[in-house]
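Final report, Chapter 2: Outcomes

The project's central promise was a pipeline that accepts a single protein chain and returns its three-dimensional structure in a standardized token representation, suitable for archiving and comparison. That pipeline is now operational. To close this chapter, we reproduce one record exactly as it appears in the project archive, with the input sequence first and the structure output second.
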Amino acid sequence: MKESILFDEFWSHPNKLLENHIKNMISAGDEELDKQVKLYHDIAKLKNNFQIYIRDTSNDKLDKNHSFLSAYFFLLNSKFDEIPTLFGFLTIVSHHGDAVNLMTLAREANKFFKNSKELEYWDEVAGAAKNINIYLGLSTKKDEFLDRAEKLRQYLILSQYRYKFTYSDFINFKSLYSNLVYSDKFEAIFSMPKQETKDIPIDVLECDIKTLPLNKKRDEFRNFVLNNFDENYKLFTLTAPTGYGKTLTALNFALKFNKSRIIYTLPFTSIIDQTYDIIAKIYKNSDISVSKAHHKTTIDEENLTEEDRYSKIKFLMESFSGEINVTTLYQLIFALFGNKNKDNVKFNQLKNSVVIIDEAQAIPYNFRKDFILLCEIISQRLGTIFIFMSATMPVIKSDNFKEISNLEYFSKQDRYVIKWLDVSGEEDLLKKICETARDKNTLVVVNTIKKAQELFVKLKDKFSCFCLNGYMYDDHKHATIEAVKRAINTNKDDPLASKILLISTQSIEAGVDLDFDVGFREVSPISSIIQTAGRVNRHFGEIRGELYVFPEISKFTNLIYGDLQKVSKAILEIFKQREVRESEILEISNLYFQKISDQLENLYIQSEIKKLEFENINQKIEEIMKDNHKQTLIIEPEENFIKDFEAKILEIKNSSNDEFTIRDILKNHIRKLSKFSINVTFKDKEKLTPNLKQINGLKDMFYLPFGSYYFYSVDYGLKKDTNLDITDEVFD
């Protein structure tokens, strides 16, 4: 038994009473299980070693672990049935880490149920708890705990044969786990109970909409959607052609529910930045917080006041805590499916919120069925409103969803026609592109980076030509898109100005507001063809646009698109036989997604759900969402950029801030590199290795120095093929 050291008061965090921490965490709306989990989650911080450490955090050799022992006191004092007790136990065990597979508790009993190292402090904690009011009446019988722990472990072992967990059980655990993680972090940072969010004034948005240029089609669409408001539903689809102003319409519709917050998700960081800028501008003169959260978001440290500690801004930004939150679909997916602490801090914020899922077709078909089922359960369990939005809506087989758009809009569209271009080869294709690009703003979309770069090199001297692909860093992409937009606007106002030609990969497809006269699209899944068509005559010009679909020239199309390409093949025969008008697009899109639903979609994580294998679920989703065959490289954007970056790292590490602040500021600084990053294949990285340099202070982070024009072109990014344009290596 450890020697007792008595303290006049017990801290949970530096200069913070544990009792106050617990009291601030418990909310009036918490269920009894939530309250009990919060009550016991830090009780083991009463041990002497932790109290010594928290008064001097530089003394990190002390045993300051407390999760297991805290879970033990919860288990002993639990008045709940087995499953809620199991969930509460795992929640406390995991609150400083990630949720493990439920059966891991049984398999590693000596670690989870009877950790001898933790149990050494039992009497010490039990004795200290007598001095704290919130623990009056606490049961402290160690023998009784050991008996209960063994019984619960046996129950868990038998449950794998007797009880199959459900998606609802999964959500119930995540709700409990997230509630604890969020409340714990919030109180630790702000030292106060969680505050109610402000009402988001709908009139601010509606006044802004009134200042927009008149657009009969968009205004009619918005009015129809708003008149379709129905508070009896929690699940909606909003299906409308491209260019109809779905962003502001969906936001307007969402605000009518008067919920705590809006969470607006999009698939790509480029259009997240675009959408955030629009919404932030609308609410810039209000006290409404508009947050942007994706893996490349950074905090402007120069504008931080002493009161606005870095950790406060960081937490609010990364936990969906703003009144309006613009984020990635990726973030939402892992908030729903993930087992990691950092992902689950967001899940709690779905409660009493409106979640807008823009470009819903981007939800991977592999787990789309699971995703929709979880949304249905969350809407009932947490009062969340979901709005799925797309020009090409996936099939949703549920009567719980209500379509709020008028699908007849599709039948009335006549902005473009899709034609099959039966060319004999690449040279024949180039000839057709050149004929068109002389007097029309032209878009060409191909399936690979290499092919996009090759076509650009062949055509760049003949036209006002641009290239857009995944081997360009974000700032380079943004600059290119803005340059294309300016050029199109100029030549539409000035008939004598040069028309432009953009060679792109699928980077252009969703959400990018560019308007071309003619498009060319290499054969691809139907949804991609339709998305490309959405960039042709997007703004309702008088002359009907044309999109030509041509045979594969990139190679690897089947490998890139996989099963989606197989599903598309039969439908593509329609394009080969006749022209397809925009008015037919909804019917073709529905046929495509119906085939996907029938042939490819199933409950991807059902077997893992039955056993609540949280780690395995996260891993399966990661396999779909992440490309494990790529590595991040930094492209140095200007001379001495990395040198200055390295100096700042050293300055941060040597600052007088506490270790937690240093860590957070360092992470934020590192994030500043992301807008100059690209993800390259390992094969391409190997080609570049002799020319790469390591960033001092960062393990395994490499960069391509500024001025490496042979490898990185200011026109089209990192060369996919280093032999490309070998005869002319001088770039502007």
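Archive annotation: Residues 627-718 form one domain.
This record, like all others produced under the grant, will remain available to the consortium after the project formally closes.
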